[in-house]
User: Which sequence fits this backbone?
């Protein structure tokens, strides 16, 4: 069965893309939702090697996320807490500020694989507490800044 011809995909048959950034970030992943024609939800499958994470610690102001741990174990950073996670766990990450910031870390000696599901909003703002950045995303617009770099609303206006 071809992914293009169906609304069903098997995670074991998907072509995963490798990505890495620095010493801490690495994963093999695929965005499944767009392959299947999803409209309002985005879903991805990520496989993270030991000692790595797939993305920075962040929170969402517009999109809610859910993660399902398919195999392996690791840690969930959530707000000010860190807790152990393992295969079978379902994780809820609602919208909010730094108190809902989250990151899945593979601190084990085996691969960690998970599905993520998120609401797909046309506009999103993410905060990155570890680096003090704010990201604004809307269609092709992707802008990363820091709160101290802000300019007044009227600057440059005649």
Assistant:
């Amino acid at each position: 069965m071809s992914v293009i011809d169906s609304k069903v995909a098997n995670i074991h048959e998907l072509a995963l893309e490798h990505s890495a950034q620095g010493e801490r970030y690495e994963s093999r992943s695929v965005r499944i939702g767009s392959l299947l024609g999803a409209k309002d939800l985005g879903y991805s499958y990520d496989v993270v090697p030991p000692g790595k994470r797939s993305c920075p610690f962040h929170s969402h102001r517009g999109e809610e996320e859910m993660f399902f741990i398919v195999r392996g174990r690791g840690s969930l950073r959530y707000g000010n807490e860190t807790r152990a996670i393992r295969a079978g766990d379902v994780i809820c990450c609602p919208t909010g500020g730094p108190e809902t910031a989250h990151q899945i870390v593979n601190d084990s000696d085996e691969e960690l694989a998970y599905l993520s599901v998120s609401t797909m909003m046309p506009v999103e703002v993410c905060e990155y507490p570890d680096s003090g950045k704010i990201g604004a995303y809307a269609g092709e617009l992707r802008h990363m800044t820091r709160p101290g770099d802000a300019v007044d609303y009227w600057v440059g206006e005649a």
About this structure: The chain is about 5% helix and 45% strand. The mean pLDDT is 94. The chain has one domain: 11-122.
